[in-house]
Amino acid sequence: MMTTPAPYRIGIDLGGTKTEVVLLNPEDHPQLRKRVATPRRKTDEYEAILNNTVQMAEHALAQIPGHDATIGICIPGIIDAGTGHVINANITSLIGHPFRQDITRQLKRAVAMENDADCFTLAESLKGAGRGFAMVFGVILGTGVGGGLCFNGQLFRGRHGIAGEWGHMAVAPDGPSCFCGNRGCVETLISGTGLAAAYQRAYGRPLSAEAVVAGARKGNPDCQRIFQRFLDAFGRCLGGIISLLDPDAIVLGGGLSNIDELYREGAALARRYAFHPDPQTPLLKNKLGDSAGVYGAAWIGV
Question: Side by side, which strands form the sheet with 145-151?
Fold first, then answer.
């Protein structure tokens, strides 16, 4: 009996500084990978990003016999389920625009689009650290904090398409102001930006998140104090996720996922704060690195 071959897949990862495209052949092996700078400008930025994304998709399509492939795009924002417009995007020029519809119109073919944290979670569930686990909660710890949820290799989006967006759970009513309009969001406490801001508030001088971590490791008491608060907040926030969702595994991504202490002290604190006497939820470092977003985008394609 003849079977239909698996399709070519195109994934595009739109980030604040770079845009990457991957073309996967029917065996799921990369046939093309390309990165370019994401257009950032004061005027007409949306149109420039739209055109750049379309051109990257067309470049990948030109490599395929018959020019036929599924296309998926991950963005640093959310597609509102009601309007189809982008909301809550770190690239603010996308907000309020029907980005998916505009790309679909220009390419004259269906395009799937998801949040970057969702694409990360999907990729790690299918081919990365979360492979083999039924329910995976994916976490991105970087400039901001994002999250996604996968069940048996399928994204769970929720009623409004915001499932997993724990970065904007307001957990500290008297905490720092967040760009979303609330105070004390997870993102203000355990992102790289939040870690640096905590040091600035405490000591009145700037220090990057990387420098705070390095200073804590060298025994600097100011850095140790701020870093310990960061680890405690990480444990509280992640312990809450374990209590709420009870996932089979949690996978960390983003620049801060390289902090080894998260998998020791942070994990121990998460177990302490979870509503279970001895939670065994594995806290795993990602395996796909910065490739997770673009691969996840390819695998959401329709």
Answer: 154-155, 145-151, 135-141, 249-253, 283-285
Spacing of C-alpha 273 from chain mean position? 24
pLDDT tens column, 213-270: 999 999 999 999 999 999 999 999 999 999 999 999 999 999 999 999 999 999 999 9
Buried b / exposed e over 138-159, threshold 16 CB at 10 Å, is bbbbbbbbbbbbbeeeebebee
For residue 143, the model assigns a pLDDT of 86
E-only strand ranges, the chain = 9-14, 18-24, 30-37, 70-75, 78-79, 86-87, 112-115, 135-141, 145-151, 154-155, 249-253, 283-285
Tell me whether the CATH fold assigned to 9-118+291-299 matches the one assigned to 129-286.
yes
CA of 116: how far to CAs of 181, 204, 224, 262, 288, in Å?
Answer: 22, 34, 32, 22, 14
Distance CA 226, CA 36 (A): 36
- Give the model confidence (pLDDT) of 81-118 as tens digits: 889 999 988 889 999 999 999 999 999 999 999 999 99
Q: How far is CA 150 from CA 14, 135, 288, 291, in A?
A: 21, 6, 16, 18
CATH class of 129-286: alpha beta
9-118+291-299 folds as Nucleotidyltransferase; domain 5 (3.30.420)
pTM for the whole structure? 0.91
